[in-house]
Design brief:
The strands form 2 sheets. The chain has a 4-stranded antiparallel beta sheet, covered by helices on one side. Strands 4-5 form a two-stranded antiparallel sheet. The chain has 2 helices and 6 strands; from the N terminus they run βαββαβββ. This is Ribonuclease P.
């Protein structure tokens, strides 16, 4: 798999897994349902109802770290939406890239 580079090349895998760590200014819980809502809300705000379709495949609420699976050619759109969202439910929030990996269709859980 080729990751996007400075020239803006697309990820060429059928699917990609984006590992994201959530940063919040406080220690209040951020459970999986909020992570899912944050991801879907960010995509909807940027792309409307025509945005990438994603699947949350993993989430660790203690580490505030989750994985988002999307078609490889749309994973950059997902990342763009997450990085533009600076608040969620009245709280400041930031999404940090943790990993980006190719994901075979058989491994989508």
């Amino acid at each position: 798999m080729r990751k996007s580079d400075a020239r803006g090349h697309q990820v060429e895998a059928d699917f990609a897994r984006l590992g994201v760590r959530i940063e919040l200014p406080d220690k209040r819980p951020f459970p999986i349902d909020q992570f899912e809502l944050f991801v879907h809300e960010a995509i909807r705000e940027v792309f409307g109802s025509c945005g990438p379709i994603v699947k949350i495949s993993e989430y660790d609420s203690d580490l505030r770290r989750g994985s988002i699976v999307a078609p490889g050619n749309e994973i950059q759109q997902v990342w763009a939406a997450l990085t533009t969202k600076g608040s969620f439910q009245g709280r400041r929030i930031a999404a940090h890239l943790h990993t980006l990996t190719e994901t075979p269709v058989t491994n989508i859980v």
